[in-house]
Amino acid sequence: MSSFGFGLITAAVLAIATVGFTMQFAVTNVLNLAYGSVMINSAYVTYWVNQHGISVWLALFAGVFCGAVVSWCLNRVIYTPFQRRNLAPITVVIVSLGVDLMGTFGLQAIVGGSYVTYKMSQGHEFHFLGMFLSGVQLIIIGICAGVLILIHWLLKYTRLGKAMRATSANRNLARNSGVKTQFIISMTWIISGALCGLAGTVFAMNSGVFEATSNELYIVLLLAAMFLGGPGEPYGAMFGALAIGLSTEISAAYITADYKEVIAFLVLLGMLAFRPYGLFGSEKTL
Amino acid sequence: MSLTSFGFYMSTILVYGAVDALACLGLSIEFGVAGITNFGFIIFQAAGAYTAAILSMPNAATSNGGFQEFVLGWNLPWPLPWIGATLVGGLIALPFVFLVGKRLRGDFAAVGLLVSAVLLNLLVKNYVPFLNGDAGISLVPAPLQNLFNPQSIGYQLAYGGVAIILTVLVYFLLRRITESPYGRSLRAMRDNDVVADSLGKNLRGQRTSILVLGGMIAGLSGAVLVGFISLWAPGAWGYAETIVLFAAIIIGGAGNHKGAILGAILVPLGFEEITRFLPPFGSPSLVPALEWVAIGLLIILFLWFRPNGIIPEKRRILSTIVHRAPVTPDADDDDAESASNIGSVNDFDFRSVLTTAPVVNDHRVMLSTQGLSKSFSGVTVVSGVSISIQQGRLTGMIGPNGAGKSTVMAMLAGTLSPTSGQIFFEGQDVTHVASYKRAQAGLVRTFQLASEFKKLTVLENLVCAIPHQSGDSFTGSLRGRRYWGSEDTSNIERAEEILEGFGLSQYADAYAGGLSGGQRRLVEIMRALLAEPTVLLLDEPMAGVHRNLARKIGNHLVKLCKAGMTVVMVEHELSIMDEFCDPVIVLAEGKVLAEGTMAELRANSEVVEAYLVG
Question: What's the CA angle centered on B466, arms B461 and B467, to 5 degrees?
Fold first, then answer.
């Protein structure tokens, strides 16, 4: 049962990250493989602020802000100019890998290779239903629930969210129908970037210690969760994150921790091979 | 530096350079020529290195005090381990065919390969009994080490020489493939795979062959490397090493094998050597970190400022007619050009470029559908369409936007598979026959949207559509120009003839991507004709073509039908329908509304209401 608790917290972090990742893909059509490096950079910004004696829960906002600004800049300076050139979609994917290298190793060049940790208390440990969860972990799950409800509200009930969905479904049609698609795309990068920054910070909190390359494999979990729920489907991403988070931790408990990511890999490859549009998606979404 | 140590240094450079060049060549044929973004390329090099290691090493339990665990250990003499490595590199490509097969988008397949590389590295690292886990395999014997002294300068230089010779051989092999009709098909697939498929190219087959070939080359490169450095471990083949190779061929020039070699010298080798001579500074992780930053930056800068690399892919001049000054088409000058430059489709007989035997028109049913339906996520676009297309007739298809015309055409050609219903071609049920096979059987389509192969010249676009080319297969391409050369020349002449007929000869050697919209439509029609169709499906072929020229083409289509070809044409211009098409099928809201001559349709109030006046 304790592995279920670990799975829940892993899933919570992953859900925040995957929803942002999948929104980027849906609305802006960029498979941004640099997402993980923006996460870890944001986690470091939180760390720097935290080092100056500010509570990590306030510093977290700096991380969120960093994620939003960096993502917006990436789109403005790199992805959009490349997309405007009307190149094969794979070019932008290769570019995002280049960005990922620069982001991850640029950070490593600045901060060095040593592990750091936030100054924070883990809070009381709670014990219920056979699970042990620290106060911090409970807060992370709470943040995750709050974020998912907010995203649901954004997509379902706000003009911005509807415009985002319209842009995702058909960008040209949306533009011709009066949606300011460039603005919507910028907003998507800011919102998904904020989620990315938040995910990076809670990822670092949950890991305890981290360094510049700590989430090197995280992109695989992200991709697995995204493809499980269907690429570009925010609700699918929530489900995918839950499934991947739980299954990696439970398999770690019952098989061996060395292979805990393996299940995510296999899920991802299986989805790509047989249902690349996700469990609930349909052919047309590709 | 003494002469001997310089010699050792040189041999290291030679071997590393050759290994990197081999790897880049393998990636160049996959990515640069065939358009397969193999983000897991390093898997294949690793497989080769491990295979060479465990084939050449003695049994793990009995050798070296048994301090490492691995499978096999067959103690084979050189060159068997290298041959084994090459074969395994190719074999290991086969499981990945499901990712690069026809259905999956290129970027998703790339992600799948990237993830596979990470996964395999993780598995090999953690499962020690297979290949000694994270520590890797060491003390791999050097080739022929019982005959020569591997530490001697002569041996080292000879090793470098062999490596270079192998690289040169691979270079010529790849050039042979790339410059053949098969290479042309590969490049067509790279530029637009859906269209290549519609012209009868077997995408899965082509991609499998090239993935296997690239894997073999990568496997060989791994074998050469491990024989020299005598150890191999998961740390040497992280997924990011593939990105280094991508950086190399992007910088050198993807699609040009010379560029791949240049890239190998500049990036993997250059970076290694430069850092060797850097004075130590900062923390030990600083220099490698900065290297990665530089590689990321170089990828982005090159893709932006010089996307074709230092040595770009060269334009293939095929035309046999005396070279006029190459004309650069002006894509913005649509109207002027269609009125003057082109449009001289005069007395040219299209039939003459086709090699199929003349057919007597019997107006039998060539192509028919039974209750054909298609829905996308619950929205029904085509429902219950049953039509029959008669031989030797020019059948028109009209209908308001969204009536399902293009969807019907796509289902007829096999680009889309129907949700329900059946399609019969010459009496055979072809509902589940792959689109490329339908094209090979003579059911050829064109596309509503521009579908030229951008980085093939106009002439290459045309020639690559010609069916049954003996050089258009993997084995055919290996047999060389002597085997397919004369046939290719006559194919080129046929293509030039039809190009002349359309008045586009001056653009023969220009990239098709640079043509104007109207010219591209014409290239597409010519290309479809050269594919030797018995039934030709034209999706708005006249869009953007000058009215006078459109009428001339219409006349020629009628002539082709009289000579036995069957044509189905979707068109919005009713005057064209009036003049050339009989019968005409009207689609509305996914259903067949009416069928008959245009005169009959104009008398049908339902049709007039749905379409003609709307």
Answer: 140
**Is the Cα dihedral B376, B377, B381, B384 positive or negative?**
positive
Percent helix, percent strand, percent coil in chain B, to nearest 5: 55, 10, 35
Instruction: Give me the phi and psi of A275, to 5 degrees please.
Output: -140, 70
CB A40 within 8 A of CB A215: yes
Final residue of a structural domain among B252, B275, B298: B275
d(CA B177, CA A53): 65
Please state, rounded to an integer, the average pLDDT across all residues of chain B: 86
Tell the residue number behind the tokens 């379902």, with chain if given: A156
A176 touches chain B (CB under 8 A): no
User: Can you say whether the dihedral through the CA atoms of B468, B472, B476, B482 is positive or negative?
Assistant: positive
Buried b (16+ CB within 10 A) or exposed e, B335-354: eebbeebbbebeebebbebb
Amino acid at A251: S
Residue B356 corresponds to which amino acid?
Answer: T
Task: Tell me A47's DSSP state.
Answer: H
Look at residue A100 and give its three-state secondary structure.
helix
The tokens for B182 are 């098969």
> With pLDDT > 70 as the criterion, what percentage of chain B qualifies?
92
Q: What ipTM does this complex have?
A: 0.91
CATH no. for residue A54? 1.10.3470
The parent domain of residue B450 ranges over 334-344+362-612
d(CA A214, CA A172): 39
Pick A258's closest partner by Cβ from B126, B286, B307.
B126
Helix, strand, coil content of chain A in percent (nearest 5): 75, 5, 20
Q: Give the pLDDT score at B303.
A: 92
Q: Is A122 within a domain?
A: no
CA angle B109, B17, B37 (to 5 degrees): 10
State how far the Cα of B262 lies from the Cα of A163, in Å rounded to an integer.
Answer: 47
Cβ atoms of A97 and B243 within 8 Å: the answer is yes
Query: In terms of domains, do B391 and B261 share one?
Result: no
Total domain count for chain A? 1
What type of residue sits at position B436? Y
| A202 part of a folded domain | yes
Burial A79-109 (b: 16+ CB within 10 A, else e): bbebbeeeebebbbbbbbbbbbbbbbbbbbb
The candidate with the shortest Cα–Cα distance to B297, out of A93, A102, A110, A97, is A102
Q: Which of A268, A272, A277, A280 to mutate to test the interface with B (most CBs of B within 10 A)?
A: A272
User: What would the pLDDT profile of A180-211 be if each residue is shown by its tens digit?
Assistant: 888 999 999 999 999 999 999 999 998 889 99
- Structural domain ending residue among the three candidates B260, B275, B290: B275
> Least CA distance to B121: which residue of chain A?
A262
Can you tell me the distance from the alpha carbon of B62 to that of A114, in angstroms, rounded to the nearest whole number? 41
Q: Per the CB < 8 Å rule, is A101 touching B292?
A: yes
Q: Considering only A195-204, B76-85, B543-552, which range has the smallest mean pLDDT?
A: B543-552
Best mutation site among A74, A90, A286 for testing chain B: the one with the most B CBs within 10 Å? Answer: A90
pLDDT higher for B21 or B610? B21
User: How many structural domains comprise chain B?
Assistant: 2
Token couple for B396: 């028109």
Residue A47: pLDDT band (50, 70, 90) is very high
- Name the one residue in this structure whose structure tokens are 């490397």: B225
Residue with tokens 């800049």: A73
The answer as to whether B283 is a domain residue is no
What does residue B287 show for φ and ψ, rounded to 5 degrees?
-65, -50
B233 and B374 part of one domain: no
CATH number of the domain that residue B419 is part of: 3.40.50.300
* Calpha distance B256→B421 (Å, rounded): 46
What 8-state DSSP symbol labels residue A114? Answer: -
Average pLDDT of the residues in B236-259? 92
- Taking an 8 Å cut-off on Cβ atoms, the answer to whether B290 and A109 are in contact is yes
Q: How far apart are CA B178 and CA B180, in angstroms?
A: 6
Q: pLDDT at position A18, please?
A: 94
